Amino acid sequence: MGKDERAWGHAWHVPSNEPRTQRQVVEDITHAVEGSEIQVQTIPSALVAFLGLFNGLLREVSETVYQFDQTFIMNDSAAREAFGFEPTPWDDVIKDLVTAYK
Known about the structure:
The protein is an all-alpha fold and 102 residues long.
């Protein structure tokens, strides 16, 4: 893609699988490692902002918290159409992730 003239001057979103919530991703990973169910909780954005006063990483997170509070889906159709890209199947993504950390 980097050598393709059509790529220059545009931002491209890498083709991705169907949107999943963080909770769904955690469940998929837990299932893949045959682990027990993990409880997932939300940290209120006000608490993240407060903790950001003391922690630089959380300060940055507080600036992007909208991505976690609202639907945030990127459109990858331009890269799919222009270059014929397809995402790695979701089950393979999870399998590769689990294998890499065993």
